[in-house]
Amino acid sequence: MARPPTQIQTPGLRTLRPRPLSRRSLLTGLLATGAVAAAGCSRAPAEGKVEGGDLLERLRDSGTVRIGIASEPPFGYVNDQGKPTGQSPEVTKVIFNRLGVENVVPVPTEFGSLIPGLKAQLFDVVSAGMYINPTRCEQVLFSDPDYLMLDAFVVRKGNPHGITRYEDIVEKGLRLASGEAYAQIGNAEAAGVRNVLVLPDQVAGLDAVVQGRVDAFAGTAITVRSVVRNSARAEDTEAFQPEIDGEPVYGAGGFAFRLSERNLRDAFNEQLHRLKANNNRELLKIVGPFGFTREEMTDLTAEELCG
User: Fold this and answer.
1) Mind telling me which SUPFAM superfamilies this protein's record contains (predicted)?
2) Left (φ > 0), alpha (ψ -120 to 50) or beta: where does 182 sit?
3) Is 161 buried (19+), middle (13-18) or exposed (0-12) by CB count in 10 A?
4) Contact 219, 179 (CB under 8 A)
5) How far is CA 32 from CA 9, 26, 117, 127, 246, in A?
């Protein structure tokens, strides 16, 4: 399928708008009180307070970092051997190894529980390809993004309705589904789509399209591309840049840290930029096996995406 157009990834495009709904929505409440207690006696400042933090030193002492993942290939999941893998965990492993932390332990959870779990200190970093947007930036500190993603659809083989954009769903009176808390729900609603069927994930979306319950399933281009790879009855559409009021809505993902741990975020960011040096040469070696290409690379920053 066609890759994302390179012009959206250039430094010149800096007009960013808050996403009406991120790829997976942000739950702002903390987890249950018992979960907070289980996190132990780690020090944390009052809600909303940004400090330097000493978590990196503590992680080096213990030799282990806990990462929150959401079991969503290819962004992050646990493999058959019980090891964390996917685009984000593999980048995390390399960076923390260089920071002096060798052991990476996955903590799987639902995507909507990642930020609450991070704030409750159930893990130390969110490593799930999480989109960076202003709403989330009020809750956590983000690294700069390590990818920029476009939208696409799962459709029946041959794309009988000619679906290429969200506007096609509206104009043709078609039925659309998307994943639970996916940003594509907000993108579709901004284009005028009503009653988006929310499904657990892209696999359920593929089944819904094949069974004729919906006409299309919206997701990230790479998620859609991977789920239809072995399907004889469905295909993916060409990737496209979603817009709101004529302006691009960027789907750029990064790694999230507690507001109290700016030192850790900054050290992580420094290593990430080293991976991105020389035209992302080293970063592409890590994420390439999961379907990411040079066209998904970006030089946008968290500051720009946070607004």
Assistant:
1) Periplasmic binding protein-like II
2) beta
3) middle
4) yes
5) 40, 16, 10, 22, 41
**82-137, pLDDT tens digit by residue?**
899 999 999 999 999 999 999 999 999 988 899 999 999 999 999 999 999 999 99
Count, residues in the chain: 307
Distance CA 14, CA 300 (A): 8
In this structure, what token pair is assigned to residue 209?
A: 């399209």
Beta-carbon-side half-sphere exposure of residue 244 (alpha carbons within 13 Å)? 19
Q: What are phi and psi of 251, to 5 degrees?
A: -105, 80
Residues 188, 246, 158, CA angle at the centre, nearest 5°?
45
| 43-52, 74-83, 121-130: the lowest-pLDDT one | 43-52
DSSP 240: B
260 has a pLDDT exceeding 80: yes
Max CA separation in the chain (angstroms): 59
- E strands present in 157-293: 176-179, 197-199, 216-220, 234-236, 243-244, 247-248, 251-257
**Pairing between strand 251-257 and 147-149?**
antiparallel
> Which parts of 125-165 fold into alpha helices (H)?
134-137
Token pair 């900054």: residue:
266
